[in-house]
Design a protein that fits this description.
Helix content is 36%, strand content 0%. The chain is mainly α. The longest helix has 16 residues, at 45-60. It binds zinc ion. Zinc ion is lined by residues 12, 43-44, 46-47. Residues 12, 43-44, 46-47 line the site of zinc ion.
Length: 69
Amino acid sequence: MARPVKKSNRPCDDPRLDYKDLETLSKYLTPQGQIHARRRTGYCSKCQRELKQAIKRARHMGLLPFVGS
Ligand SMILES: [Zn+2]
Protein backbone atom coordinates (compact mmCIF):
# COMPACT_ATOMS: atom_id res chain seq x y z
CA MET A 1 0.00 0.00 0.00
CA ALA A 2 1.39 3.33 -1.00
CA ARG A 3 1.46 6.05 1.53
CA PRO A 4 -0.51 9.17 0.73
CA VAL A 5 1.75 11.92 -0.46
CA LYS A 6 1.68 15.09 1.53
CA LYS A 7 1.64 18.08 -0.69
CA SER A 8 1.81 20.62 2.07
CA ASN A 9 5.58 20.56 2.32
CA ARG A 10 5.97 21.57 -1.29
CA PRO A 11 3.56 24.31 -2.23
CA CYS A 12 3.45 25.57 -5.75
CA ASP A 13 3.20 29.14 -4.64
CA ASP A 14 6.79 29.10 -3.54
CA PRO A 15 9.04 31.75 -4.99
CA ARG A 16 10.39 30.71 -8.33
CA LEU A 17 13.34 28.45 -8.51
CA ASP A 18 16.81 29.72 -8.99
CA TYR A 19 19.53 27.54 -10.38
CA LYS A 20 21.96 29.22 -8.00
CA ASP A 21 19.85 28.20 -5.03
CA LEU A 22 21.51 24.86 -4.55
CA GLU A 23 20.15 24.42 -1.08
CA THR A 24 16.63 24.40 -2.43
CA LEU A 25 17.41 22.43 -5.54
CA SER A 26 19.21 19.73 -3.64
CA LYS A 27 16.07 19.11 -1.65
CA TYR A 28 14.51 17.79 -4.82
CA LEU A 29 17.38 15.57 -5.73
CA THR A 30 18.04 12.04 -4.65
CA PRO A 31 21.45 11.26 -3.16
CA GLN A 32 22.30 10.05 -6.65
CA GLY A 33 21.52 13.46 -8.03
CA GLN A 34 18.31 12.53 -9.76
CA ILE A 35 15.24 14.69 -9.64
CA HIS A 36 12.43 13.37 -7.53
CA ALA A 37 9.25 12.45 -9.30
CA ARG A 38 6.47 14.97 -9.32
CA ARG A 39 4.39 13.12 -6.78
CA ARG A 40 7.38 13.33 -4.54
CA THR A 41 8.12 16.99 -4.96
CA GLY A 42 4.46 17.93 -4.83
CA TYR A 43 4.85 20.25 -7.77
CA CYS A 44 2.36 20.58 -10.52
CA SER A 45 3.63 19.79 -14.00
CA LYS A 46 4.42 23.41 -14.70
CA CYS A 47 6.52 23.91 -11.59
CA GLN A 48 8.14 20.53 -11.97
CA ARG A 49 9.25 21.69 -15.36
CA GLU A 50 10.75 24.81 -13.84
CA LEU A 51 12.53 22.66 -11.34
CA LYS A 52 13.94 20.52 -14.11
CA GLN A 53 15.13 23.58 -15.97
CA ALA A 54 16.74 25.04 -12.88
CA ILE A 55 18.57 21.82 -12.15
CA LYS A 56 19.60 21.44 -15.75
CA ARG A 57 20.99 24.94 -15.68
CA ALA A 58 22.81 24.31 -12.44
CA ARG A 59 24.42 21.27 -13.98
CA HIS A 60 25.57 23.22 -16.96
CA MET A 61 27.08 25.77 -14.66
CA GLY A 62 28.88 22.98 -12.89
CA LEU A 63 26.99 23.60 -9.67
CA LEU A 64 25.40 20.18 -9.60
CA PRO A 65 26.79 16.87 -10.77
CA PHE A 66 25.38 15.12 -13.79
CA VAL A 67 23.54 11.91 -13.18
CA GLY A 68 24.70 8.49 -14.12
CA SER A 69 26.97 7.56 -16.94
ZN1 LIG B 1 2.74 24.71 -9.67
